[in-house]
Amino acid sequence: MALRQRAPWGTLPLAIVCLLFALVLWRASNRWRKIVLSVVMLLVVFSTVMARLNYFEWMFHPIDSAQFESARMSKLDSGEMILAVRFGPDARAYPISQMAYHHVLNDVVGGIPVVATY
Fold it and tell me: Which domain holds residue 67?
């Protein structure tokens, strides 16, 4: 995590150094070396950009408005695992199969805001 937090500050100067190095090599290079330099620079630029983005948010979107069914109306198999939350008389069950994809679910159980995660 410490490396991830510092990566944006280190990648930009290193990308600039790589670009300057590639420009120096470009003039003295033949066609194949120019292709290799171009591919390397694409990878450097891609790495520099990705160090600044939170790509985990692209994959895992929290569920903000969960929809519920009664146990009888549910289409879950009887052996399917669930994550259960209960406050007083109010209870919720979240299927692990859905939680494994989204990882975060925002809900209100018994009037109390909760965040379920798996």
Answer: 59-117
